């Protein structure tokens, strides 16, 4: 294509190009909320770890095999992740911004804005995917717009979020665009093979970028089986090697084959990532269904072979039998939907009570069930994919087209990611884009109904306008309300900023800290000191050590943990720890015990922020006279300050600007004794820093 042809094409599509630019800028605008905060702090903990790897890549040209900052107590050191594609891209972005001059704030800024760009690119990519599948610019534009504003998707692609998953979706969406272009045709010519090969390459790039790349075969294999089933009943009979089903399955095998080669080759160069995708996929399904791994793999292989055989049976059958293939496809799609709903209803793990939810790793943070957050993460947009799941199968009968089979891919994308999001909180982001896939189907159905029943332009305009207003109010406003609730990780608890500044200015660069895992990534990147554990939870021993140090009643045991088992020089103790006794017990015992709540909250433990007013302190709108407040003391006490209901011991501590109220269980812990400088612990530790409930102790 020469320059004149390009110029003509741009002019002919100027309206679409303008709207795509609007979608791109809208996506960037919505995701840029956190840039307003000073300090270039990042949104989530994992982003700090990737920033640290990017920093190593920038400063020394490679990422070291051993982590220089975390798990210092591990003999030989703890291996860290290898440099990945996203780190090279963020390093390249940094060099563009820095013009060759080293500036750590620019490293954080590059990591901060990368997911914004990836999210905006994906939004535009979803336009091209929907346009290819539905042959409609209108559906494509609505899909791109929804991808730009969808709260759950925007949430994990906003400033300072982890970059590898958002970058991975860039490759996945582009890969699907090329694959759809290939499988839309009935032939197997040069262009088809080029598009198929490009899809496999982009899927391979996703494998290089993110471990969740098994999402590709998880969506592609079942959708391909059903697509092939559908086309086996609608295609003309030819020589088998020239038939549409044969050409179709060849394209799928080529795409998955290239993806398999790239992902397997990469696995040999990535620390701790050596399992081929079909084993990882089988293992994931086995864990959810609780069916033996080997049996799960065998069932998958047999089912695939049977369905492929069934497809060719229909293809070679007489017209009467052949025509049943699309109908059976529709019926089986509904069977799959009903099976998912039944699984939600009968499997205990999907409502918190199953055996698989009794370990601490399955109940904490992103490993917990995700369905409880659907309302805030998806708001009323959730109705769009739900409509798609229930209505789409029947549209294969009513809205027949030569390439209708390609739409099945979006249906499986929707149902599979919905299942994943319901099962685990961390997958709600994955369904954030799956929701958009389902919404694209619903938009297509609406436009097709308007066309089929030949509604007059005025009525059609009102329906489209009403749908747009619905999306605008629920989507854009929902994203704005949802995303503005968040602050960068450090800013969400402002005392961390002061604490990290103090660590940088008052400790040796090789100082060793004893800390809880949830703050490790942030601390290691910002302060560049050494910490016992981080958010990778790579050492169960390290987590248990901090947990036991906190909950034990034996101060000598606590000191032995710090000095002999960990070898720390400083201990970080936030007052928030007084809310986490059961959690520390869970980690120490590696099991969940619901009775621990009663044990630790024998009285309503509270940490109340206070501020001075005339003649006293305002603590949660209750004015405590200065003399009474100071009389509570900040040194650990053995005898109760009061008794709740005349029976339950209560302990009051006035610690600078915090009023801390403990029950007897908490008061007897090593945490309380160290935090409040008890006589038992004063020879072991020296308090060297205290600010807004955050304390640091130097180990003597």
Structure overview:
With 700 residues, the protein is of the alpha+beta class. It folds into two domains: 3-337 and 456-483, no CATH class; 493-699, 3-Layer(aba) Sandwich (Rossmann fold). The strands form two sheets. It has a six-stranded antiparallel sheet. A hairpin with a 2-residue loop joins strand 8 and strand 9. Helix 9 (190-209) packs parallel to helix 11 (244-267) and helix 18 runs antiparallel to helix 19.
Layout of secondary structure:
Blueprint: H1 3-12, H2 14-31, H3 45-60, H4 85-98, H5 104-134, H6 137-149, H7 151-155, H8 163-183, H9 190-209, H10 215-232, H11 244-267, H12 277-289, H13 293-316, H14 319-322, H15 324-346, H16 360-363, H17 374-378, H18 383-398, H19 407-423, H20 428-452, H21 457-483, H22 489-492, H23 495-506, E1 512-514, H24 520-527, E2 530-531, H25 540-551, H26 555-566, E3 570-574, H27 581-589, H28 596-600, E4 606-613, E5 616-619, E6 622-625, H29 626-631, E7 642-644, E8 648-655, E9 658-662, H30 664-667, H31 670-675, E10 685-691, E11 694-699
Parallel strand pairs: 1-2, 1-3
Antiparallel strand pairs: 3-11, 4-5, 4-9, 5-6, 7-8, 8-9, 10-11
Helix pairs in contact: 2-5, 2-6, 3-4, 3-5, 3-24, 4-5, 5-6, 5-8, 6-20, 8-9, 9-11, 10-11, 10-13, 10-15, 10-19, 12-13, 15-18, 18-19, 18-20, 19-20, 25-26, 25-27
């Amino acid at each position: 294509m020469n320059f004149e042809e390009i110029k003509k094409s741009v002019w002919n599509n100027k309206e679409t190009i303008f709207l795509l630019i609007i979608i791109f800028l809208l996506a960037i605008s919505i995701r840029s909320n956190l840039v307003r905060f000073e300090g270039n702090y990042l949104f989530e903990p994992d982003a700090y770890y990737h920033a640290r790897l990017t920093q190593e890549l920038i400063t020394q040209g490679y990422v070291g095999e051993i982590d220089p900052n975390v798990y210092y107590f591990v003999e030989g050191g703890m291996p860290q992740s290898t440099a990945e594609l996203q780190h090279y891209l963020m390093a390249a972005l940094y060099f563009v911004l820095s013009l060759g001059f080293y500036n750590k704030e620019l490293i954080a800024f590059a990591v901060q804005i990368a997911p914004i760009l990836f999210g905006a690119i994906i939004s535009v990519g979803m336009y091209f995917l929907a346009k290819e599948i539905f042959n409609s610019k209108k559906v494509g534009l609505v899909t791109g717009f929804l991808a730009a504003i969808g709260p759950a998707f925007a949430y994990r692609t906003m400033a300072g979020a982890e970059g590898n998953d958002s970058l991975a979706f860039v490759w996945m969406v582009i890969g699907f665009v090329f694959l759809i272009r290939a499988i839309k045709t009935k032939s197997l010519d040069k262009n088809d093979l080029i598009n198929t090969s490009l899809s496999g390459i982009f899927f391979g790039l996703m494998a290089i970028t993110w471990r969740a790349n098994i999402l590709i075969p998880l969506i592609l294999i079942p959708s391909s089986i059903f697509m092939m089933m559908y086309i086996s009943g609608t295609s003309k009979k030819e020589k088998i090697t020239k038939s549409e089903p044969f050409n179709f399955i060849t394209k799928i095998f080529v795409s998955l084959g290239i993806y398999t080669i790239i992902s397997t080759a990469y696995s040999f160069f990535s620390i701790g990532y050596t399992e081929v995708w079909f084993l990882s996929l089988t293992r994931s399904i086995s864990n959810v269904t609780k069916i033996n791994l080997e049996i799960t793999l065998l069932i998958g292989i047999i089912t695939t072979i049977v369905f492929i055989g069934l497809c060719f049976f229909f293809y070679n059958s007489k017209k009467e039998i052949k025509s049943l293939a699309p109908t059976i496809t529709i019926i089986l799609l509904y069977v799959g939907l009903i099976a998912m709903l039944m699984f939600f209803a009968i499997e205990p793990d999907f409502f918190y009570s199953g055996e698989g939810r009794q370990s601490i790793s399955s109940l904490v943070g992103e490993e917990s069930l995700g369905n409880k957050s659907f309302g805030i993460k998806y708001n009323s947009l959730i109705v769009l994919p739900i409509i798609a799941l229930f209505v789409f199968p029947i549209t294969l009968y009513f809205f027949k087209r030569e390439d209708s089979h390609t739409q099945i891919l979006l249906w499986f994308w929707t149902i599979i990611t919905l299942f994943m999001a319901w099962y685990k909180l961390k997958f709600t982001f994955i369904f954030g884009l799956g929701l958009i896939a389902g919404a694209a189907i619903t938009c297509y159905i609406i436009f097709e109904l308007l066309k089929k029943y030949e509604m007059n332009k005025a009525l059609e305009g009102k329906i489209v306008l009403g749908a747009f207003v619905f999306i605008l109010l629920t989507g854009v406003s929902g994203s704005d309300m949802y995303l503005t609730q968040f602050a960068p990780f450090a800013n969400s608890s402002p005392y961390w900023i002061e604490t990290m500044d103090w660590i940088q200015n008052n400790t040796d660069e090789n100082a060793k800290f004893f800390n809880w895992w949830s703050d490790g990534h942030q601390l290691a990147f910002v302060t560049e000191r050494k910490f016992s554990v981080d958010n990778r939870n790579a050492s169960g021993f390290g987590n248990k050590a901090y947990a036991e140090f906190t909950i034990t009643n034996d101060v000598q045991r606590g000191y032995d943990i710090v000095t002999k088992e960990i070898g720390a020089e400083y201990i970080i103790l936030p007052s928030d720890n007084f809310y986490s006794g059961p959690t520390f017990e869970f980690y120490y015992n590696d099991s969940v015990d619901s009775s621990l709540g009663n044990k630790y909250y024998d009285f309503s433990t509270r940490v109340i922020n206070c501020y001075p007013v005339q003649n006293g302190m305002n603590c949660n709108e209750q004015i405590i006279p200065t003399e009474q407040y100071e009389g509570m003391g900040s040194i650990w006490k053995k005898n109760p300050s009061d008794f709740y209901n005349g029976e339950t011991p209560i302990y009051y501590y006035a610690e600078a600007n915090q009023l801390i109220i403990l029950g007897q269980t908490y008061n007897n812990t090593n945490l309380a004794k160290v935090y409040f400088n008890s006589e038992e612990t004063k020879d072991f530790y020296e308090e060297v820093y205290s600010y807004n409930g955050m304390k640091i102790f130097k180990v003597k």
